[in-house]
Amino acid sequence: MDNYIILHGSFGSKDGNWFPWLKSKLEEQGLSVEVPQMPVGVGIQNYDNWSKEFDKLNINENTTIIAHSIAPVFVCKYLINKQVKVKKLILVCGFNNYLGIDPDFDAVNESMFFDNLADIKNYCDNIICFYSDNDPYVKFDVEKAFADTIANEQYIIKDGGHINAESGYTEFVDILKVI
Asked: CA 71, 76, 82, 84 torsion: positive or negative?
């Protein structure tokens, strides 16, 4: 049976942004959806702690993972390291090896970065990336390079900011079109 996982980003919450809205939309269709709360905070948020939480989830070839901000690179690294194949990845504002956002964000994001990002194609054939042309946290070129490396489809949201609540995204209708 198909299942869906929605994953927040750094210092984020499973109850933030468009995640509760998307969860309810998918559940209305009778779909199985998990939205884990990952460990957040300097000294707490890192690849190992997030991996321990992800290990608790049912992830397999029928899984679609929807991830935001730092979560896309975490998911890619996790699937490659664990050698787990999934059905689809929908990655929003993803980036890799990008520092200089803010000292606290850099501290929690750095352990998520890795060098063999393109290897994710061995674990998922359907990778879709959304990002915007005016993200205040991650440069457009960085998000585009991430998407260019792995995506089958890319969608650039005009004036979408970081595609989060701060940018007016408590709903994200465009994402339903690719699910």
From this structure: positive
